[in-house]
Amino acid sequence: MKLLSWNYQGLGNLWIVRSLRKLLKDQGPMVCFLMETRLNKEGFEKHCRDLPLPNKLIIKKPDSGGRLAMLWKREVKVDVINFTENHILAKVVEEDGAAWFLTGFYGWPQSCQKVKSWALLSHLATFVEGPWLCIGDFNAILNSDEKLSSRPPSYNQMDDFREVLDRCSLVDLSFIGYPFIWNNKRPGLANTRECLDSAVATKDWKEMYPECTVTHLHSHASDHVPIILQTKPTRNHFTKSARSFRFEESWLLWEDCEAVVQEAWNIKEGTRSSLTRIKENIKGYGLELQAWGSSKTHPDTDKIKVLQKRVETLGRGVCTEENKVEFLEVSKELDDLLRK
User: Fold this and answer.
1) Residue 21: is it exposed, middle or buried by C-beta count within 10 angstroms (0-12/13-18/19+)?
2) Which runs of consecutive H residues, i.e. helices, occur in the chain?
3) Is CATH 3.60.70.12 what the domain over 2-230 is classified as, yes or no?
4) Which positions ≥6 away from 298 have C-beta within 8 Å?
5) C-alpha 288: how far from its chain's center?
6) CA of 123: how far to CAs of 78, 164, 330, in Å?
7) Is-above-0.90 flag for pTM?
């Protein structure tokens, strides 16, 4: 099973929505926990109705947009136990019957309010009886090497975070990838990078999934990096079947689309009034349209990969004004390709 956690700070931006769609397509998570959505239920349905996770819980912040969202596929059972603006606690039952508790957690970012985060986490532990996984943006770090900045970390805050994890019998699951999951993207000495997002679990959850991995991904659309938790290694056993004809919506973005459709349809223009002939036209010339469209549906797959790699390199490099300008230019070009 795969689980995606991401603080992307606003889904009203189509740029971010496209990035989320691609992430869900590439990674295929069964459950997705999102933070700072800034969309209420109506806004979520408007911008994200086509996401491949039909079940959802949207948490709205009073006098504001959405705060948290949890989405999941039909194949997994998710029973929500309770929630606030800062957490969603649920019991997960997988296809094979494995059951455990899941908390999507969003800690208070303000230093003076972090005590609320640890009080909430301790309170949630009283509802859990069995294996427990907690994932999200804790807005806190465990060790000094999880911060890269000209300003030193708060050792008291790190101690408090470690103490509450001990009290709740939670341990860090570690990760694969670039360590600094958040970047304020300010240049020079003002730049700060931290590992604010984590996945922690109880000992019995780790024993259920000894091969579990947590991977830091990359995105040009947010100052937070999405993370993927995978309970078991992926084993692909499938054969690719022949693809039937479908008209791709992305073809409409190409100027020559209308002319190609018109030409294909008009070959038997004189018999278009016959329903049978219309069906034959669609069947016969669908192949012609598909041959044309195959080069348009994914026209720059290699270029997308190159741009993604460049964005990732720029995001991890020294933050300068020149770096920020190039990052924005490359990100816009990448977003345009993702739109197509």
Assistant:
1) middle
2) 14-27, 41-48, 114-125, 155-167, 203-208, 257-265, 275-297, 301-316, 321-339
3) no
4) none
5) 36
6) 21, 11, 44
7) no
Tokens standing for residue 135? 């994932």
Nearest partner of 331 among 220, 230, 203, 196, judged by Cα = 220
pLDDT number for residue 217: 87
The dihedral built from the CA positions of residue 22, 23, 26 and 32, taken in this order, carries a sign that is negative
CA dihedral (199, 202, 205, 207) in degrees, to 10, reads: 110
Average confidence score pLDDT of the chain: 82
Partners of residue 194 on adjacent β-strands = 147, 182
Q: Which of 31, 30, 34 is nearest to 16 (CA)?
A: 34
Give the pLDDT score at 239. 40
Pick from 8-12, 117-121, 147-151: least confident: 8-12
Mode of pairing for the β-strands spanning 66-72 and 31-35: antiparallel
Residue 269 in tokens: 């223009």
| Residue 319 DSSP SS3 | coil
Q: What is the pLDDT of residue 99?
A: 95
Q: Under a CB-based contact definition with an 8 Å cutoff, are residues 135 and 3 in contact?
A: yes
